[in-house]
Amino acid sequence: MEIQIPFEITLWMLLASFAKIGFHVYHKITIWVPESCLLISIGLIVGAIMHSVHETPPAVLTSNVFFLYMLPPIVLDSGYFMPTRPFFENIGTVLWFAVVGTLWNSIGIGMSLYAICQIEAFNVQDISLQENLLFAAIISAVDPVAVLNVFEDVSVNEQLYIVVFGECLFNDAVTVVLYNMFTFVAEMPTVQPVDVFLGVGRFFVVGLGGMGFGILFGFVAAFTTRFTSKVREIEPLFIFMYSYLAYLVAELFAISSIMAIVCCALTMKYYVEENVSQRSCTTIRHLVKMLGSISETLIFFFLGVVTITTEHEWNWGYILFTLLFAFLWRGLGILVLTQIINPFRTISFNMKDQFGLAYGGLRGAISFALAFTLPENIGRKQLFVTATIAIILFTVFLQGISIRPLIEFINVRRTNRNLDTINVEIHCRVMEHTMAGIEDLCGQWSHFYWKDKFMRFNNRILRRILIRDARAESSIVALYKKLELQNAIEVLDTVSGEISAAPSVISLQEEQKESSKQKMSLMTEDLKNMHKILSKNMYKIRQRTVAFTSKHALPNDSQPREILIRRHASIRRSLRPGSFQSTSQKYFSLPAGQSLGSKYPSSRLSHAGKLLKQILHTLPLGIT
Amino acid sequence: MEIQIPFEITLWMLLASFAKIGFHVYHKITIWVPESCLLISIGLIVGAIMHSVHETPPAVLTSNVFFLYMLPPIVLDSGYFMPTRPFFENIGTVLWFAVVGTLWNSIGIGMSLYAICQIEAFNVQDISLQENLLFAAIISAVDPVAVLNVFEDVSVNEQLYIVVFGECLFNDAVTVVLYNMFTFVAEMPTVQPVDVFLGVGRFFVVGLGGMGFGILFGFVAAFTTRFTSKVREIEPLFIFMYSYLAYLVAELFAISSIMAIVCCALTMKYYVEENVSQRSCTTIRHLVKMLGSISETLIFFFLGVVTITTEHEWNWGYILFTLLFAFLWRGLGILVLTQIINPFRTISFNMKDQFGLAYGGLRGAISFALAFTLPENIGRKQLFVTATIAIILFTVFLQGISIRPLIEFINVRRTNRNLDTINVEIHCRVMEHTMAGIEDLCGQWSHFYWKDKFMRFNNRILRRILIRDARAESSIVALYKKLELQNAIEVLDTVSGEISAAPSVISLQEEQKESSKQKMSLMTEDLKNMHKILSKNMYKIRQRTVAFTSKHALPNDSQPREILIRRHASIRRSLRPGSFQSTSQKYFSLPAGQSLGSKYPSSRLSHAGKLLKQILHTLPLGIT
After folding, report:
1. Is B432 at the interface with chain A, CB within 8 A?
2. Residue B129's pLDDT is what?
3. Is A432 within 8 Å of A451 (Cβ atoms)?
4. Are B207 and B257 in contact (CB under 8 A)?
5. What's the mean pLDDT when you consider all of chain A?
6. Is the pTM of the predicted complex or chain greater than 0.80?
7. d(Cα A253, Cα A230) in Å, to the nearest integer?
8. Transmembrane stretches, by residue range (chains A, B) (predicted)?
């Protein structure tokens, strides 16, 4: 039996997991040195050991394995846990940096390196322009992992975070497309102008095609989970099968598979999570995170191993200039691109943000895998591999370790977002509603208008098709649901923690806990009340408004002005304090009122007493 | 890129999952026809379609794939969710049926078929005794899936259920061992008596070796999860890596890999579930179930496909006699073996139970895979494959469909076990404690004594090594924890269900739900109180007893009688009603008493009121 392959895979995974555990046992290391650095270091050690005993490098790691099995979980993870709202609010900037930035870097670095190649002293005249561009495309992909961890820890402002996040996600796609284009071009003897135009056209087909496939599979996945209420045990499987299928199908059609899986995850997420059971949802989230995390761990680990076990071709000139140009063009690119994009942004990037963006450009797994995938007929493949590994190690170690102190030192704008509170959510929604109305009035339709349109389309059509229990649900109710679930899980953890602690601890500690638990249960109670009040009232506003518009909008499409004024009035009317307060008080008086409150504990007491009697009755007292 | 393999696998899985969803959409089918039958039928249809378009059978299904990737999840599922207590209470019977029963069937069927082979009319004289025995071993493995589902639905008595469950689990191991032995023997020209003895010896080495490896890996897994509190996201991975590693290593050493993975799952389960977080625990359970379920689904599905796409050799005589002998020897075996085991059992098997055992002997996946693994140098391999498929289809369809009405008709003893209540648990524990004491006094040490010994060893040493938070925890506390978590999850589900229902439903329904929820929260409160009382008191008993024994046992090991009398006295003393009642009342009066109870709602009211005011304050009232 071919037992070796699964055996080897399991052992490598176990080794990588052990390393991960090890770092976190000594927690202080991971604060200052990113996990990726540590993993690469461990990989280097393991590689050195393997090299010294003349072991062959792990058969597991081929670029094939990387692209088919290790990349999809990582991208799925990023796509599934992408903060949707800030992402869509910054989508223009994200795409700008991802697409134009990557092109900028590829072409800039490629051209400069080609110029360097003309210098005879470096002895690399045989590298053609196409090959230089190909190499530049490889090292243009920016890796998010290490930087994002640091950004999260020091909580930089949301704009910066989401732009780096999005850039990393999409420039992988751009890089892979560029790579495919340039490998194709590199094998051509001459390049004609028409090829360039074809390339640009193909670029868009590949990107948009991937997006389309992803969205399609996302909808199919959501639709499938409508019918899984009887087969809960395999629910999570569908998420993985569909997103993987999206990836593979995109790969088959030679369109961007990364785009496909990201869009699939983004599309299906909300519908699926409402369709599946709570347990399935937890499992899906945990599993997505788990697979992504272990793939990432393995990649950095293998990077270390392969660095040692691969044969290198070292060329001081070429590699040093690669490092220099990568750094230079990245910085220049950010500088130029932010100047162009800033006028279009509400919150523009300042100098410190630009530094964060430029300095956060670490290279990682994608570059590494692409370098190994280089076709054999490229003369200086070994040099390219060496240079790629050099730039990865350089950026991951030097920039990765120094970025935290630097960001803290120059004091980059910190986050302006706290925990999602109810007030924030309500304000946002009201403002958006109002903005959509104002925009409608002005005739200038920006993203508020489109969001409003999409939400209505979503509620009227998509949700009905894709969600089993297809009642429309406002995002506030969804937020409440989320908060409540979170709270319940926390309470659960506290309770179970207390139970296991209970037998051996003495009363003092316990009383403290007791009171904290009481407080928590009070909190839950309050939250529930607040939830009820808010969901009902907000709902009324929403439903009344929607009903109003739709009733009039359909027959009299020619009178938008009047409708808008009416709509505005209806929003105002429903937000008037009197109507709100009276309803809320009506709802509030029921669950927490005095009359019920005084009935409550006595009934509880009698019930508990009865149960206690039962217990005492059934204990084997006959023994004495 | 080798995209075909993952693509094909994903598509087959998706197809099988769709079939599973389909059955459950029309729920009525699955009550009368087992899922396995339906899956085979779908497989037959797909196979027929593939055959008609001259498609080759799925490349995915080789016996290699089966044993390396599809069997482990199924066995892990069975092992992980095995009902531990009834299993260990019936372990003698289980092993008796699994080991002796399988040997009985293999040898009986093999010999009889050899006799049939001597009849010239059937034209199968070329099949040797060794080959007949090998074939008999293949079709001796009993498959649990279909039968267990029926048993669960009609809730037959626990003894019957657990014996069938355990038999299925272990006779897989026995069958694989026999298979390996007989394939080895089948290639020998002659068999000498010494080979038989060697075979028997090997049989035990393989079985016990697998067990040993499994337990070892289980402990290592449990120990590893002590340190994963900082890397929660990869916790579930360890469970799968270790159990899979146990399986693979056992396979490498040619010992029973099924035993290894089952024992690994059994060993690590309790320790791991206490170490990992609640979310990880949910994920692990869901994932184990999911993987097991999809593997099972795929196997039955493929069985149908392969039935059509394989070339068959049909021999009426041989196949009909195989069916007859399989049925006959199974029935005879159960009859004889129960007669032998009954005197040793507290609750003996009656005629109806015997019928259930005999009729529940469906053949399934293991037989199927083993038949395909047959070495090519066996002359009549095709006949064996055909006969195996025939017996699988015959038993799965005929017996599988008819077992439910038959069991209900002859009215097999139903379950005598309700939901684990607290009372039952307390009674059991007290009885066990007492029994252990009595046995100690009598000097006759049965499983109560050994259980007590193991529990003490577990609490004193194993738990300290393997569990992060190593305070000893009685099984009652564990039960409470479980009940409470279950309850909390149920409450969660109700709450979230209610939230999504709230906006659109009218008050009447809601009030009903409200009251039911209140009842449920009361239940939780009671449960918590009861838990507190019980855990504290039971704990005292336990700890006092243990402390007492250990203090005296170490220096004066020569006076066991006195200690035992004292221990008995101490148990009696602590169980005296007076002492229990007083403490319990002391503890009870605090959380649910009148004084606190009257304080409770008012504070909650004021707190909630304050929060409401806050909300009203922050609403955008300024708009009007």
Report:
1. no
2. 83
3. yes
4. no
5. 74
6. no
7. 35
8. 7-26, 32-53, 65-82, 94-117, 129-148, 160-182, 203-224, 244-266, 287-310, 316-337, 357-375, 387-407
Residues 6+ apart with CB under 8 A from B171: B97, B98, B99, B101, B102, B140, B141, B142
Residue B200 contacts A where some CB pair is shorter than 8 Å: no
Side-chain-facing half-sphere of B321: CA atoms under 13 Å: 22
Contact at CB, B535 and A293, closer than 8 angstroms: no
Confidence category of residue B588, pLDDT binned at 50, 70, 90: very low
Q: Note which residues in 410-429 of chain A have CB less than 8 A from chain B.
A: 422-423, 426-427
Q: A421 vs A608, which has greater pLDDT?
A: A421
Contact across the interface for A608 and B598, Cβ inside 8 Å: no
Percentage of chain A beyond pLDDT 90 is 12
Query: Which pLDDT tens digit goes with each residue over A299-339?
Result: 888 888 888 888 888 888 888 999 999 989 999 999 999 88
> CB contact, 8 Å: A602 with chain B?
yes
- What are the boundaries of each domain within chain B? 3-410, 418-485
Under the banding of pLDDT at 50, 70 and 90, the label for residue A207 is confident
Using the predicted structure, report yes or no on whether residue A366 has a pLDDT greater than 90: no
Buried b (16+ CB within 10 A) or exposed e, A186-222: beeeeeeeeeeeebeebbeebbebbbebbbbbbbbbb
Q: What are phi and psi of A156, to 5 degrees?
A: -70, 170
From the list B7, B238, B618, the residue facing A248 with the nearest CB is B7
> Which comes out higher in pLDDT, residue A325 or B490?
A325
Residues of B in Cβ contact (< 8 Å) with A25: 227, 230
Q: Please, which pLDDT band fits residue A516 given cuts at 50, 70 and 90? A: very low
DSSP, residue by residue, A473-488:
--HHHHHHHHHHHHHH
Residues 60-79 of A with CB under 8 A from B: 64, 67-69
Separation in Å, CA of A229 to nearest CA in chain B: 9
**Interface mutation target, options B3, B370, B585, chain A, most CBs of A under 10 Å:** B3
Burial class (CB in 10 A: 0-12, 13-18, 19+), B242: buried
pLDDT tens string B259-275: 899 999 999 988 888 88
Instruction: Locate the chain A residue with the closest alpha carbon to B597.
Output: A601
Residue B273 CB contacts under 8 Å (≥ 6 apart), including other chains? B281, B284
List the beta strands (DSSP E) in B36-152: none
Please report, as a single letter, which amino acid is at residue B427.
H
Task: Judge whether B117 and B366 are in contact, CB under 8 Å.
Answer: no
Exposure class string for B363-375: b at 16+ Cβ within 10 A, else e: bbbbbbbbbbbbe
CATH class name, domain A3-410: mainly alpha
Residue A518 pLDDT > 70: no
> A555-579: per-residue pLDDT in tens?
333 333 444 444 445 545 555 544 4
Test mutation, B20, B26, B231, B425, chain A, max A CBs within 10 A: B231
Give yes or no for a contact between B404 and B339, defined as CB atoms under 8 angstroms apart. no
CA dihedral A172, A176, A181, A185 (to 10 degrees): 110
Average pLDDT over residues A8-36: 83
The identity of residue A117, as a single letter, is C
Taking the Cβ of residue B594 and every Cβ of chain A, the question of whether any pair is shorter than 8 Å is answered with: yes
- Chain A contact present for B294, CB below 8 A: yes
Minimum distance, in Å, between the CA of residue A283 and any CA atom of chain B: 5
Q: How open is the CA angle A524-A527-A532, to the nearest 5 degrees?
A: 130
The answer to whether residue B521 scores a pLDDT higher than 70 is no
Q: Which residue of A has its CA nearest to B538?
A: A503
Alpha-carbon distance B424 to B417, whole Å?
10
Query: Which residues of B are less than 8 Å from A235 in CB distance?
Result: 290
What span, in angstroms and rounded, lies between the C-alpha atoms of A110 and A132? 5
